[in-house]
Amino acid sequence: MELETANSSSRRAAFEAHRGRLWGVAYRMLGSRADADDMVQEAYLRWHGAPTAEVRTPEAWLVTATTRLCIDRLRQLRAEREAYVGPWLPEPLVEEAPAADAATELASDLSVAFLALLERLAPEERAAFLLHDVFDSDYDEIAATLGKSESACRQIVSRARRRVREERPRVQVDPAARERLVESFMRGGASVVRFLLGVLRGARDRLALQKIVVNGETGIALRVDGRLVSVMSFATDDRQILGVYSVLNPDKLGGVPPAVRH
Q1: Residues spanned by CATH 1.20.140.160 within the chain?
Q2: Strand arrangement, sheet containing 241-247
């Protein structure tokens, strides 16, 4: 009994050491807090039941299990997202101000624009691309995860990377420049009001805008009569706003902190 308890405790500690990485993989794969939580929890349950002989290293086993679960879940969601009214956008991760530690698992390649772009990749393409280009996994690890040869995985990553680069801005945007562009958008007078009223007709005198952090980048919370109705994020370069992503679905705004919602 004591040995079993010690083993369970050791497994739990090993899992917790990698929980942030697993959640980062799951959220980027699925674009949903709830789905990411579910996949990490399922990986936890499988981890506790895995025979010791199957585990080379805890991190590799856990990342593989989580990724496979996410691929299966993404396949299930495909039809639902294809039938979604309007463009499908990920559930935003909102903060009032930037996190003190910018070097967290969720600090890079997390923007709404980037995750929306990943929706165009097939589940295995998305997994291979994220594991290699975002989480620095080797091709042998990706091959083991996907059950394919290293050569095939190299081709998958190359193809996915090419598709992403075709539409992703090639410049590294300075955060200060992004913030200035967003502030200019907020001060844009009639043109901004027309945009907002195109979404919320008749609410001109009851609108309030708040600068927030959305998926690690400067964004905007839009309220009507004090109630949050949209979280907006932006694709930019150093000179202009290239795209506006507005999340209006109440189900996707449930995870926004109360201080931002009200």
Answers
A1: 2-92+122-167
A2: 94-95, 207-214, 217-224, 227-236, 241-247
Give the pLDDT confidence of 24-62 residue by residue, as tens digits: 999 999 999 999 999 999 999 999 888 877 787 889 999
The pTM score is: 0.86
Which tens digits make up the pLDDT trace of 147-184?
999 999 999 999 999 998 887 656 677 888 888 999 88
Tell me the C-alpha distance between 75 and 227, whole Å: 34
8 Å CB contact between 235 and 245: yes
121 three-class SS: coil
Q: Hey, which bits of the chain come out as E strands?
A: 94-95, 207-214, 217-224, 227-236, 241-247
- Cα atoms in the 13 Å half-sphere on the side-chain side of 22: 27
Q: State the helix-helix crossing angle for 58-82 and 33-49, rounded to 10 degrees.
A: 140
* Topology annotation, domain 2-92+122-167: Butyryl-CoA Dehydrogenase, subunit A; domain 3 (1.20.140)
What single letter denotes the amino acid at residue 96? E
